[in-house]
Amino acid sequence: MRNQKSYWESKRYKNPLKESERNILYGIKQYLQLIENSGKLIWIRNNTGAISVGNEGSKRFIRFGRQGSPDLIVFLQGGKTIFLEVKRKGACQTKEQREFEQKVRELGYDYFVVSSVEEVICIISHNIQ
């Protein structure tokens, strides 16, 4: 007997109740841009993707950014830097992301795994001078 996918698991339909990481990231980027426009921070989108290059016989995969690095880096007034890894609720960091987080924390920087715009608002408002 074949395993049948549920309605929500099919390739055509996504569960509207399950917030995607992409949508969460989009909302966070909109918020950060709003605050950047007020002159209180600068942010960058990090680790933005990959591309396959070459012809059929010799294709290779090139990744942009360092493996394990966070989705967003936020630079605040006074020289403070915050690293943000965006995950949907219930999702876990990869081994490489956990290792990168550990190195960043050992150097004295703040690193947060966030799953909502509200969490980022709290983090940023707490750190803006």
Which secondary structure elements does this structure contain, and how are they paired or packed?
Layout: H1 21-37, E1 41-45, E2 49-53, E3 60-64, E4 72-76, E5 81-86, H2 95-106, E6 110-114, H3 117-127
Parallel strand pairs: 5-6
Antiparallel strand pairs: 1-4, 2-3, 4-5
Written description of the protein model:
By secondary structure, the protein is of the alpha+beta class. The protein has a single domain, classed as Trna Endonuclease, Chain: A, domain 1. It is built from 3 helices and 6 strands, in the order H-E-E-E-E-E-H-E-H. Strands 1-4-5-6 form a 4-stranded mixed sheet, sandwiched between helices. Strand 4 (72-76) and strand 5 (81-86) form a beta hairpin. The model has no long low-confidence stretch (mean pLDDT 87).
SS class = alpha+beta
Any idea what the CATH architecture is? 3-Layer(aba) Sandwich
Q: Say how many strands there are.
A: 6
Q: What proportion strand?
A: 15-25%
The run of helices and strands is: HEEEEEHEH
List keywords for this structure.
129 residues; alpha+beta; Trna Endonuclease, Chain: A, domain 1; four-stranded mixed β-sheet; two-stranded antiparallel sheet; 3 helices
